User: Which sequence fits this backbone?
């Protein structure tokens, strides 16, 4: 599977200078730049360019962009769902480590952006990849399972954390129910398990297919149903999940065969490793059955090992897409008890400093800050997230849980 789009780097001079900053300060100043330079004041989405440069409303065809007609995904709005989901998860870890009193309000802004991706356009349960900053509702007709994965993961982590209040947690139940309902309605054999585009048509590229896909992608539909069950307690979603998860794990565990993993390697860039792990982190935390949890842990070892290999090859830099350095590190940090070696720590620190993180693109800032705060959270021993990385992974036992 090819990546969906290239990251646009919109560098600005950063003040004050970054020289001499410790990693905490680098991440803090870098995220402040994301908030001031790249976050839309109207949509609260994190764009890949300045909000003023996002595709204006006049360029949409009745509120939609069609990539197949040459419209593209929208300037700066192609991956706001991915970046926003990773950002919300990052803020949960940052808050767990520091207790920074400013973070609840800042996280709520990111949450409101993700909420808009599901609700602002008026298509129930459709996860938009981005919204027009000018009118707050126009969107690209095409989404993807990648966008869905990170939105569901980010909402779930926020729901489990001390950052969300009761109103947000109740609302997340409605959001995840809407997403799950769309999946149940549309992801059928007749639609080739496509959740359908914003205009109701099928996706010819296959990036919206939620079932009968590659081994590293098979967990996405069960993930949506399990998240809806975890947040709402509605047994209907657990029943749908139970009907899919064993086949999904059988498929994921095919990657433990070296020949299968080699054959699929070209279809698993760094962002795919992180998405597989984001999915499986949720599965591991919410799955009540010990046998299944053991299988999920086993399945997480492969993308973690691939992430370690990619991190060494990238040497602190990036591949062509998104943020390979951050994704390859997070793929390891999400896996329970996977050793995050001194070499990986050194690569993380190199990534933060070369270039200094506040001077990087918003996508790189978010992914590397997410890796840093997850590493700090694990190392601090203060509330290892969601039963991962050495803490007990019994269902419902996460320190983030309400």
Assistant:
């Amino acid at each position: 599977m090819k990546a969906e789009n290239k990251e646009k780097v919109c560098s600005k001079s950063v003040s004050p200078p970054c020289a001499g900053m410790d990693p905490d300060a680098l991440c803090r100043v870098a995220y402040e730049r994301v908030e001031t330079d790249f976050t839309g004041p109207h949509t609260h989405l994190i764009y890949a360019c300045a909000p003023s440069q996002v595709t204006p409303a006049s360029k949409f065809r009745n509120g939609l962009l069609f990539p197949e007609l040459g419209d593209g995904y929208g300037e700066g709005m192609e991956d706001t769902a991915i970046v926003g989901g990773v950002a919300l998860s990052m803020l949960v870890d940052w808050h767990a480590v520091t207790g920074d009193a400013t973070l609840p309000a800042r996280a709520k802004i990111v949450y409101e952006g993700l909420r808009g991706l599901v609700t602002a356009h008026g298509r129930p349960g459709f996860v938009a990849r981005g919204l027009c900053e000018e009118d707050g509702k126009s969107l690209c007709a095409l989404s993807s399972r990648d966008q869905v994965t990170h939105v569901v993961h980010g909402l779930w982590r926020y729901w489990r954390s001390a950052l969300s209040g009761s109103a947000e947690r109740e609302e997340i139940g409605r959001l995840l129910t809407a997403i799950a309902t769309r999946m149940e309605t549309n992801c059928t054999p007749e639609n080739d398990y496509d959740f359908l585009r914003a205009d109701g048509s099928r996706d010819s590229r296959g990036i919206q297919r939620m079932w009968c896909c590659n081994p590293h992608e098979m967990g996405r539909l069960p993930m949506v149903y399990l998240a809806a069950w975890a947040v709402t307690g509605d047994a209907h979603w657990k029943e749908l999940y139970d009907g899919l998860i064993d086949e999904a794990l059988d498929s994921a565990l095919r990657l433990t065969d070296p020949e299968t993993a080699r054959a699929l390697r070209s279809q698993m860039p760094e962002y795919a490793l992180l998405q597989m792990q984001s999915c499986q982190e949720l599965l591991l935390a919410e799955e009540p059955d010990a046998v299944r949890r053991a299988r999920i842990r086993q399945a997480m070892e492969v993308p973690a090992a691939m992430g370690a290999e990619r991190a060494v090859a990238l040497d602190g830099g990036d591949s062509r897409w998104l943020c390979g350095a951050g994704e390859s590190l997070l793929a390891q940090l999400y896996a329970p008890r996977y050793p995050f070696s001194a070499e990986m720590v050194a690569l993380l620190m190199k990534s933060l400093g070369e270039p200094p993180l506040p001077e990087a693109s918003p996508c790189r800032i978010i992914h590397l800050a997410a890796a840093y705060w997850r590493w700090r959270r694990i190392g601090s021993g203060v509330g290892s997230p969601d039963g991962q990385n050495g803490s007990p992974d019994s269902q419902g036992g996460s320190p983030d849980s309400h």
User: Anything to note?
Assistant: Residues 1-17, 382-399 have pLDDT under 50 and may be disordered. DSSP finds 14 helices and two strands in the chain. The longest helix spans residues 290-314. The CA atoms of residues 30 and 394 lie 35 Å apart.
